[in-house]
Amino acid sequence: MEKSIKVCNAGSIRVLHFILWVSVITLLGCPQHKGKLITPRGGTVSDPGGVSMIIPAGALARNTYITVTTFHDEAGMPDDGGPLLTFNGAADFGPDGLEFQVPISVTFPSNKPLTPGARFPLFRYDEQNRIWTQTQSMATVSADGRSFSAEITHFSLYGGDGSLGEGGLLDDFDNQFGDGGNPEAALDAYYNWLLEQRPVGYKTVHDGRCVEVVGHFVELTYHVNGVSGDPLRAGGRSSDYTFMVDYSSETVYKNSTTFYNLFATIYYDCSDPDFTVTASPSRISKKEQSAITARLICGAEPMVSQPVTFEAIAGLGTVNPTEASTSSGGEAHTTFTAGEENGRESIYAHYITCQGLQDEHEMIKAANVDIGSTSSGTLELHMTSAFPAIDVSTRVSVELDEDGTVTFGTATLTYEGDDDNGQSRLRRAGTLFIAPIGNTYDTGTDLRFDVNENTTFNEHFQQWVWTGSAWWPVVDTTFSGTWDGGLVFYRSAAESGGSTIEVVNPYGSASWTLKLNPEM
To answer: Residue 196 gets which letter from DSSP?
Structure first.
């Protein structure tokens, strides 16, 4: 498909061609109806999805039924702009191909806030050739950033990407190339812009799949005043999946011709999205329920209308439904209902990524639900001193009830160290009284322990210096205080060998280790 724009200026004729290839899928949106009858006197038309239009008097030659279908979320928007286009709003206007005698104004709601006053071109979908074409219709963002408006002269499927500037996918290349005085600099500027827009590693949703940019290739072919060139820029690696932009310009003056063709390719692969599963609450009693949520995020973009299946693999309850589709936020939901047995149930979520491609595979994530279970164990304090040498430890008991209440025991730890290095002698002797307090918090994937050390200490500290014949006392003091720092542990780690928090400095260390043994 080719879009030609002719501009007459100072005796020259410039013909610009813009071609954009990309595969597309069937678009889903609000149901279309017969539409609203608009006469040659003009009128307004709006869609419940949010798109509206103003048709001025004289735009239509005869009475016409006008339809519009808004694409306002990821489930229905045309996301097949490839790795470069991410539409903020789109709409299908009908009857398709209808031409107006004067431009009409259309306004699209944006699916996220845009910069007020920003301008960017609309893209039009050519259904026959299955490509998106950058148009000369320039959209302007509203003062509140929630919508953008543009003028169009005929009906089709249009979309706008607010992340682009006024040059769209061309950026400012046409102006940078200018009269062809420095084509290499113009190519470098465009290549750097392309890498900034979609760097290697950039992820987005395309054709219902998560894709990741893996490489770029840009070639400039030019002929300026009898001088030709074919420089190129490339980075990353190639792939079987490509997105291509082709742009040509030819300027004819009285005695000279300036021509260039800019061809850019973005290579991308299908990639795994971020897939997480949570259970809330993650601790329940028999016959109680837990809400299970699976999330699919590709880069920063939720994956919409993706099927996720669930199963309870230990057989300690049931999930319903066993299959759900992700919402506009990329979430699929089910409910786990516990049976009559205590224990730990693992809820598995399954998702088929890269479906229909050679690298199709299954992703599996899990969330645990503890049913009527308790835990008991210890919280150990291990304290060391480098000088004088001290290495002591003690433990307090820990009990975790079914409702998540945690109870700590108490303990007393005494320590003493007396060392010298030939010049200085230090002696430390003291007592720690340990009485931790804390609460638990269900994160949805684990049980978090928020613990206050609540430990008081009393220490006698002495220091001497060597005079050459005897130790001379310089410090002899007693001090006391309280450790009330916050400790954070997680049940899964505590039940799998222990969860440790340690503070180390040049003078010694102090570490706390929570160890739990589940009692189902």
So the answer is: H
Calculate what percentage of the chain has a pLDDT beyond 70.
90
And the tokens for 232? 């190129």
> 211: which strand partners?
204, 270
Helix (H) or strand (E) segment spanning residue 365: strand 361-371
pTM for the structure as a whole: 0.66
Longest dimension (CA), the chain: 117
Tell me the HSE value of 224 on the side-chain side, using a 13 A CA sphere: 16
Instruction: In whole angstroms, give the CA distance from residue 174 to residue 18.
Output: 12
Burial 380-410 (b: 16+ CB within 10 A, else e): bbbbbbeebebeeebbbebebebebebebee
Give the strand pairing for 437-442 and 447-452.
Answer: antiparallel
* Strand ranges for 155-208 from DSSP E: 157-160, 203-206
383 SS3 class: strand
Strands 283-284 and 257-270: unpaired
| CA atoms within 13 Å, Cβ hemisphere of 431 | 3
CB 416 within 8 A of CB 460: no
The C-alpha atoms of residue 205 and residue 203 are separated, in whole angstroms, by 7
Cβ-based burial of 467 (10 A; exposed 0-12, middle 13-18, buried ≥19): exposed
Above 80 in pLDDT, residue 83? no
DSSP string, 104-156: EEEEEE-SS---TT-EEEEEEEETTTTEEEEEEEEEEE-TTSSEEEEEEEE-S
Reduced DSSP (H G I as helix, E B as strand, rest coil) percent helix, strand, coil of the chain, to 5: 5, 60, 35
pLDDT recorded at residue 255: 64
* pLDDT tens digits, one per residue of 464-478: 999 999 999 999 999
Q: What is the mean pLDDT of the chain?
A: 88
| pLDDT at position 254 over 80 | no
Span 71-86, average pLDDT? 66
Beta bridge partners of 125: 132, 157
Phi/psi at 171 (nearest 5 deg)? Answer: 55, -130
Quote the CA–CA distance of 86 and 271 in Å, as a whole number: 17
Burial of 502 (0-12, 13-18, 19+ CB in 10 A): exposed
**Which amino acid makes up residue 43?**
G
At residue 226 the predicted structure's pLDDT band, cuts being 50, 70 and 90, is confident
Residue 13's pLDDT is what?
30
Q: How many CA atoms lie within 13 A of 80 on its CB side?
A: 23
